[in-house]
């Protein structure tokens, strides 16, 4: 890092002797700007030196009608008067030591197009407290923020972790935090674990708070609810937060909200993620709109007061353990869009009396209705090709199973619990096929009574 510092000092003398290829003095109406610049290979221009003395600098996107695309090496080095600088959206590259040793610089606003921040670009900017780096960033050079002793937070909006040089950030501030997109935390920790300094302990998810909701931004500019810390009993989840459309309820967002008795989800939401309402033990009713296309694993696990639910016809899979341990669930409506009922989906729903499986379902996975001890009968459509291991195991009240498929679905020897009163009804012309294929349940198979 000493070499970078010495390099920055040498730049001061070097740049003083650079021949001026172009000069301009644009103004924003309040401050005067002096820039030296040169042409670039992308038909833009690169600022090579700032010679003004403004306190607040807003770099223009054009000079003399030409687009500013780069800030070259050492262009603002030791510009001690500058307190704030705004870099326009036209700029893609900030060169090595570009703002090195700007001792008064407290605020930097980067444009939305920056892909590269060079080595030592903001080194020794000792009053800089925070900076937001746009999602376009690809690489950050060594010691880019080295010795920025007041720097407390760096926000990086990129979903793909940029490559890092050595010692990019200072290590002199115990409160230092790197804020990145919530769903990319693990990616950043893995990617930056190989740098000279391991930054994994400095990461936090990039979130905002609106009332009782903490949320984060999705890639498309909509938002996901990360968590809820209110105490409502009846809750209408808002369709917008701070003007941004809510499209997702994230993992465990309402987990352990034991006060909630009813919830209405807005029709802006498309995704209910894993364990979203886990352990909402007082939840009696929930309204899920047709806009929802995905309900994650364990989304309603242990919602022990939930008595009924209607799954919208936009959902195609009931995932793993979605309603596991919903012990008061008596009825559920499965739409004809569903093709797979996942493992343990209704495990231990011991109050479930009846359920209709639509003609679209092909797979009933392992342990789906295991321990549903109040279930007395069920009809499986001719679309079903697989009934998983222990799918109806310990359903001790189940005495009537009607299967409409002419070809016996694949089962295991423990798909059903043997019961002296059990009757398995199958198409008359397929009775012998079933008895041959389902040899463990031969004594229970009979023809459907027309």
Task: Please give the structural blueprint.
Blueprint: H1 2-16, E1 23-24, E2 35-39, E3 45-50, E4 56-58, E5 62-63, E6 66-71, E7 84-86, E8 93-94, E9 107-109, E10 116-117, E11 130-133, E12 139-140, E13 153-156, E14 163-164, E15 177-181, H2 185-191, E16 203-206, E17 208-210, E18 213-217, E19 223-228, E20 234-236, E21 240-241, E22 244-249, E23 262-264, E24 271-272, E25 285-287, E26 294-295, E27 308-310, E28 317-318, E29 331-333, E30 340-341, E31 354-356, E32 363-364, E33 377-380, E34 386-387, E35 400-403, E36 423-426, H3 431-437, E37 445-447
Parallel strand pairs: 3-6, 4-7, 6-8, 7-9, 8-10, 10-12, 11-13, 12-14, 13-15, 15-16, 19-22, 20-23, 22-24, 23-25, 24-26, 27-29, 28-30, 29-31, 30-32, 32-34, 33-35, 35-36, 36-37
Antiparallel strand pairs: 1-2, 2-3, 5-6, 17-18, 18-19, 21-22
Describe, in plain words, how this protein is organized in 3D.
This protein is mainly beta and 450 residues long. It has a domain at 2-206: Leucine-rich repeat, LRR (right-handed beta-alpha superhelix). It is built from 3 helices and 37 strands. It has helices at residues 2-16, 185-191, 431-437; strands at 23-24, 35-39, 45-50, 56-58, 62-63, 66-71, 84-86, 93-94, 107-109, 116-117, 130-133, 139-140, 153-156, 163-164, 177-181, 203-206, 208-210, 213-217, 223-228, 234-236, 240-241, 244-249, 262-264, 271-272, 285-287, 294-295, 308-310, 317-318, 331-333, 340-341, 354-356, 363-364, 377-380, 386-387, 400-403, 423-426, 445-447. Strands 1, 2, 3, 5, 6, 8, 10, 12 and 14 form a 9-stranded mixed β-sheet that branches. A hairpin with a 5-residue loop joins β2 (35-39) and β3. The longest helix is centred in the N-terminal third of the chain and has 15 residues, at 2-16. Residues 1-32 have low confidence and may be disordered.
